[in-house]
Amino acid sequence: MSELDYLNEPQCMKHGPRWRARFQQLMNILRTKFTKQYFYKVGEAVCTCGPDDDIFRFLPEKVQEKRIRKSKDTRWAELITDEVADECYKYFDNYIETNFDKTKDEYGHLKNILHVLKERGQFSSRLNSANRFLYVFYKFDKDKDTTLLNPPPEPPKKEEVKEGVKEEPMTLAVPLEKLDMHLKSLRPEDVGNFIGKKGIHIRRLLKEKQGSKITMGKEEGHVKIEIEATKEDLQEIKDRLLQREALVNQARRQHEESVRQYNEMMGEPSSMDFQSAEESMDQ
Fold first, then answer.
1. At what angle do helices 20-29 and 105-119 cross, to 10 degrees?
2. What pTM did the predictor assign?
3. 28, CA 20 to 30 Å: which among 59, 100, 228, 247?
4. Are residues 133 and 194 in the same domain?
């Protein structure tokens, strides 16, 4: 893929690294248009990210946990035709022309964003994130319709009922094995970084691992981990824990080196210098 193809590749306006700053600027200018009740829902409505997208791995952990839908929103295919997408574009362009002073910065910013989105192919498909935004704005401003600002309803779960008795699905029990690990190079004070906020790194590791469990403790001054998982998952969990340990240790060493270099630059004495000074005073 050439550099030009990459620049013209459609991205999510909310999370795409090339568009999220412009999208935030766009929403800040339109802040008075969307009431507080709906302002923060616009970004979720126009998001086209999914768990299988490459962009997913670049997003902050909180976004990965809470903002990315498990499945993509399929409502748009029936709503945005080519004719509707063209009408929404013209409607938003006319809204800029009639509601903003051409001598003010806001007018220039909005016209520039709309121009760049078009030049970079963000309207090339009627289902792109940019077309979603124009459609949401069109429905909100023209028809006062906020339906698309709410997440799509979950499909009803199918339940098999026989003679008034609900049949529970049968699941085969998978035997679990146990493994003890000792992370001797991981300091106990680094455990927080190791597991992440609210244990997010551990929870992501155990996701979709049937019945797996990790218990952490301390033994003889170092971190001890007990893993309980299926035979197929056990080795993968162990390997990823070791990778996580190496990353945390590397980050700690980089931090310590940065602190040392900073102290040298600022002329701060090291702990060894303090000790030498104290000995000199004693003598």
1. 140
2. 0.49
3. 59
4. no
Looking at the chain, the number of H-run helices and the number of E-run strands are 13, 5
Query: What is the pLDDT at residue 167?
Result: 56
Considering the domain boundaries, does residue 71 fall inside one?
A: yes
Average pLDDT, the chain: 76
Element (H, E) at 223: strand 222-229
Range of the domain at 218: 177-266
Q: Is residue 191 part of a domain?
A: yes
Residue type, 78: E
The better pLDDT of the pair 227, 68 is held by: 227
Q: How confident is the model at residue 50 (pLDDT cuts 50, 70, 90)?
A: low
> E strands, 100-152, where?
none
State what percent of residues in the chain have pLDDT above 90. Answer: 11
Rounded CA separation 6/17 (Å): 12
Determine the Cα–Cα distance for residues 230 and 70; give it in Å rounded to an integer. 25
Antiparallel, parallel or unpaired: β 165-166 and 177-183: unpaired
CA 195 – CA 245 distance, rounded (Å): 10
Q: Which residues of 52-81 are buried (b: 16+ CB within 10 A; e: fewer)?
A: ebeeeeebeeeebeeebeeebbeebeeebe
Residue with tokens 């008075």: 32
Only one residue has tokens 């768990």, namely 51
* Distance separating alpha carbons of residues 116 and 138, to the nearest angstrom: 20
Same domain, 112 and 59: yes
β-pair partners for 178: 228
